[in-house]
Each structure stands twice: as C-alpha cells, then as structure tokens.
Amino acid sequence: MARKSTLSDGQGLELRISPNGSRGWRFRYTRPNGKRNMTSLGVYPDVSLAEAREKRTNIKRLLAQGIDPVEQKQEDKRKQQYAAENTFKVLAMEWHASMVPRWKESSKRANDSKRVLEMYVFPKVGDRAIETIQPLEWLEMLRSLEDAGKFEQRRRLHAFCRDIYRYAIITGRASYNPLTDLNTALKPYKKGSFHHIPQQELPELVRDIEAYDKSPIVRIGLKMLLLTAVRPGELRMAEWKEIDLQAGVWQISAERMKMGKAHQVPLPTQAVEELRYLHKLTGSFKLLFPGRNDPRQPLSNTAFGMALKRMGYEGRHVPHGTRHVVATGLKELGYPREWIEVQLSHKLPGIEGVYTHAQHMAPDQRPAMMQFWADHLFGTESRNCGLSS
C-alpha cells in the first residue's frame, strides 16, 4: 500500500507526495511566538521549485521582521475584503438608502442624487476603495463640470459626495473627507433666480396663456402656476385625491414637498373652474397631468417650458419663474410677508421659522389673498376676460 513521502529542499521547504500521486509544497517554520507551524505554498507543478523557494524566502523575510506569515495572510485577505465592501459605489448606495426615508422615495432629490452619481462619479471611481481616491481626482471631476459651464451639477455633485464621505467616516470606513476643503480651489458661482417677466408684462402673459391652443392640459397647467404659485414639479405630480373642489383646497403631502412639510394650497374660483374642466379630460387617471405616452407617469418636465417658448418667452420667462412673478405681485398689492412665504411653501428665516407654523388658511387670509390675485389677473366673470382693470 502506497504511503505519503516527503522530499526536503532544506530550510524548512518540503514537497509532500500523497498516495494518489498529488504533490504539494509545505514550509515548516517557527512563529514569532516560538511555536512551530507549517503552511502550504501551493501544488506542484502549478507552483514550480523556483517559485516555492521564492515564497520560502518571502516568508523568512517576514519572520526576520517579527511578522507572522499566517497572520499577515489573514490580514491581507481582510484588506481585500474590506476594499471590495468599501468601494465608493457601495458606500454611496448605502448612504443613498439611508437618506431615502428622509427624502421619501418619490422625491426629486432621491432620484437626482442617484442620477448625478451614476453620470459623473461611478464610471470613474465607483469601483475604487473610498480611501484610495485622491483629492486631486475629485478636483479634476468637479473642474470638468465647471469648465463645461455646469455649475449647478458641480454644486450638487460636490454636496452629495461630501455627504457620502461623512457617512463613511461615521460608519468607520474612512478617516478623511477630501471634499471638505475643495471649494477653495473651485470657481465661485452664485445661482441666479429663474427667468421671469416684470410685472408690467404680466397682462401679456395672461392673454397668451388664455389663448394657448396647442394643448388644453398644458394651458391649464400654466394658468394653475399663476393661480397657486406652486412649484412646477409639485403641479405635474398632483393627484386627484389631493384636490377638494368643494372646499377649494389642494392638500399636498409632506413627501412631495421640497421642504418635507405638508402644504395647503387655497384654490380661487378660477382654479376650481379650470380643474372641473380638467377633470373631464384626465379624471379617469390618478394624476391631474398624466403623460401623453404613459398616463401612469406625469406630464414631461419640459411641457410647460416648451409652451412658453412657443409663445415667445424663451430666455425671458420659465415655469419656475412664475413663483417670483406671483410673489412680487402680491407684495406690491400689500399682502403680509408671512402669508406670501407660506403660499410659496418657504420656511420663514431665523427664530421665526422655528416657532411659526401658522398656515394662514382662515377665509380672510390666504384664501382671500389668492382669490383677489386671481380676480386681479383673470377677472371675475369669465376665464377669457384677461387682466381685470
């Protein structure tokens, strides 16, 4: 019966031959703690004699430095596993998952942050261990955006990645945030307000919206922006279950609001009239403004803007700029700042914003303000009468 045999190469290196003919390299050595040990160096002939001798030499070098090769091998394995589990993409998706409950799944920020990372970061450093990415690499990524004039994308990318590093530090996967001080090396950029017409051009805009005949749904949407001062995204995502036409109130849930706080929108009679008409067109769907190709999805985010371009307002007025027009008009009419800020779903500044949560929905407050504004714009008799005198 065949037995195991051992061929010695000296200095602890052996070739063990099994009864079935398989051959493997073994190395006997004394660990730094004085205990004897043996480790495998691979199978012959996959590992040649020269390669086995080289491995033996490498182990002896570690031992000379007081390093246990078994512990070193385990540490190397842990580092490889750590690097695989702590790539920037892995940590970014962990961070994103932790933030979604705060943003809510349907919020623009949850989708926007993921899209920005997928476009500009993951293809370049997504598979890299987070601590191996150098500050200069981040600077080059951010500068490439500012060189392209994409300052808003640069701002968002910087903010998202900075927060991902903060998350990595808190969870013990990083020790330094290279994005914290990068602003000093970037071009300053101040975001301007959205294009909007001055008050003296408002009568013309009202007439153009009323006369728009390409799509009744888009016309109603543009008119609703003027009558409510909501954000275009809040309007496009509006659902019929939020609308109470009898009470003249639109209740927007917190998860759909930019500030994460539920918002009540008073509906003047002109808005109620338009919504009753809109209900005949889209009332069978969940959304007030369903998409043309897929009614389960909202109207395209370019629909309102394209309509304004067709009317001749390109470079002069955009959908989001309507909020500025409404706010300015209400201020000029003498309405209280608090009412206007709540209508815009803005948080009041400083300590006032902390302690003041009034909705100002009494009949003689915001509802009366927005009815006066609607009458001021569209008159009291017909939706086609234009700006009241």
Automatic annotation (TrEMBL):
Gene3D superfamilies assigned to the protein according to its UniProt record, in alphabetical order: 1.10.150.130, Integrase, DNA-binding domain (3.30.160.390), Intergrase catalytic core (1.10.443.10)
PROSITE patterns per the UniProt record, alphabetical: TYR_RECOMBINASE (PS51898)
Keywords for the protein's UniProt record, in alphabetical order: DNA integration, DNA recombination, DNA-binding
Keyword hit for Acetylation: no
Superkingdom, natural source: Bacteria
CDD domains the UniProt entry points to: INT_P4_C
Alphabetized InterPro entries for the sequence: DNA_brk_join_enz, Integrase-like_cat_sf, Integrase_catalytic, Integrase_DNA-bd_sf, Integrase_DNA_bind_dom, Integrase_recombinase_N, Phage_int_M, Phage_Integrase
Record family assignment: Belongs to the 'phage' integrase family.
Protein name listed in UniProt: Tyrosine-type recombinase/integrase
Organism, as annotated: Vreelandella gomseomensis
